[in-house]
Design brief:
mainly alpha, elongated, 2 helices
Length: 76
């Protein structure tokens, strides 16, 4: 998707998002205010630190332990 293509896709998805809540009876101003608030919160969160999902480290996760009571076989 080229630079302008993603912006067109974003615009369309925002229109669908707003329409979804308009149909449910939420006022347009309320929707825009909520989107603005969420964008502000997202910007603040991204400014505070990186997203853990973006961690590209090569560390491996440990296997979960099976020492909880339900993990023990009944035949033991």
């Amino acid at each position: 998707m080229d630079f302008l293509g993603w912006r067109d896709a974003l615009k369309l998805r925002l229109e669908v998002l707003v329409d979804t809540f308009l149909v449910e009876g939420v006022g347009q101003g309320e929707i825009f205010d909520a989107i603005s608030d969420e964008l502000h919160g997202l910007r603040e969160a991204l400014a505070r630190g990186p997203n853990p999902a973006d961690d590209n480290s090569k560390s491996t996760l440990e296997e979960p332990s099976n020492d909880w009571p339900g993990a023990v076989s009944q035949n033991e």
